[in-house]
Amino acid sequence: MDLWVTEYQTPALGFSCKSSETLRIEKTPFQDLAVVVTEQFGKMLLLDGMVMTTDCDEFVYHEMIAMVALNSHPDPRKVLIIGGGDGGALREVVRHPKVDKGVLVEIDARVVQASRDFFPQLACSFSDPKAELIIADGIKYIKEHKNEFDVILVDSTEPVGPAVALFSPEFYQSCFEALKEDGMLAVQSESPFFNSEVIQMVYGGISRCFPLTDLYLANVPTYPSGLWSFTVGSKKFDPQTIRSLSNQPLKYYNESIHKAAFNLPNFVKEIIGLD
Ligand code: AAT
Hints:
Rossmann fold; Spermidine Synthase, Chain: A, domain 2; 33% strand; 28% helix; globular; seven-stranded mixed sheet; alpha/beta
């Protein structure tokens, strides 16, 4: 029997994958969680019916959310990740040679458990000596930390449920305050095709707090439209310039991708108000 799992990416568009097995389906205290095996992309983690990550394309998103800020900051020793309970962004953080400590603050312990049970290539990072896992609301955590981190990554779900406040101007101000005087923030900011208002909210919110704000793109086939954006806010260093290249062999990110990712199509420039 063929089973198909569908994410309704917009009210008028479904993204369906043929699925051979359902490994987990549960209601956590925060969201609906599912892990299914798809023929096309391998294992897939869904939260509230939206694709969070898959075996086959997780490397694009996780390398790109982490490496741009880590490599453009000259000395990214202490890094905070908010969300990202699958551990993929943490894996990239702890393998960067300059990082001493990667703290991950995830609200939902069941996401971490699902990753431990079904995504060993992501969960491998939790046992790294540089890693610290905290189960807590990122909103609360960030308010209690000042002048502490070199880099903050926000690997959050879409702005629904527990993640709504992670897209607010107050949250970006708290990130600014939790960063050291030359710190950098990178957040996932959704699809330019389907979520232009989210991009405007994120770009606008970050540029109100940070002297430098920039947007970059990557291709993530299982995310809505396949074209994904990330927004960086920086207190001092230009995020387009590489200062501390990690020597790790990666699958997507390299020096020319770092530079090229900031070259924006005209319709994306228009979304953020650039000519
Ligand atoms: N690594 C790619 C996967 C994700 S999951 C994002 C995580 O953010 C989820 O595990 C969710 O539980 C967590 N989260 C949501 N709100 C909060 C909060 N307030 N504090 C801490 N963690 C939170 C991201 C996928 C992005 C794109 C999907 N299309």
